[in-house]
């Protein structure tokens, strides 16, 4: 009886492990920012932006409510300078990036 209960418990833990190891929305958002934004923008709470004049992502909430950025990210980010690439994010990418940006507020 005890052996069967331990076996079932172990099987349950093994089935849960991949779900527990899956990255969170915040982690995926940070990975996106690192891959796509960090060349110019500081993506953490303390660093300076590598490109002078590029605002750190941690300050975006001071200019825009983070929740309102979803529509702009879905339509595509277009800027007036050549260094900024055009971005059109998927709904999942938007959710992840906004989740990460909220951690920087």
Automatic annotation (TrEMBL):
Signal sequence interval, chain numbering: 1-21
Key word 4Fe-4S present: no
Cytochrome c domain residues: 24-105
Record SUPFAM superfamilies: Cytochrome c (SSF46626)
Alphabetically ordered keywords of this record: Electron transport, Heme, Iron, Metal-binding, Signal, Transport
UniProt xrefs under Pfam families: Cytochrom_C
Alphabetized Gene3D superfamilies for the sequence: Cytochrome c-like domain (1.10.760.10)
Alphabetized GO MF terms: electron transfer activity; heme binding; metal ion binding
Protein name from the UniProt record: Cytochrome c
Species of the source: Bradyrhizobium shewense
């Amino acid at each position: 009886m005890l052996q069967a209960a331990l076996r079932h418990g172990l099987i349950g833990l093994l089935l849960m492990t991949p779900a527990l190891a899956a990255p969170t929305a915040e982690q995926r958002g940070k990975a996106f920012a690192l891959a796509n934004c960090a060349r110019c923008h500081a993506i953490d709470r303390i660093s300076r932006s590598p490109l002078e004049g590029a605002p750190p992502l941690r300050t975006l909430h001071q200019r825009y409510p983070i929740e309102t950025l979803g529509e702009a990210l879905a339509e595509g980010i277009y800027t007036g300078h050549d260094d900024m690439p055009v971005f059109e994010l998927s709904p999942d990418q938007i959710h992840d990036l906004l989740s990460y940006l909220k951690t920087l507020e």
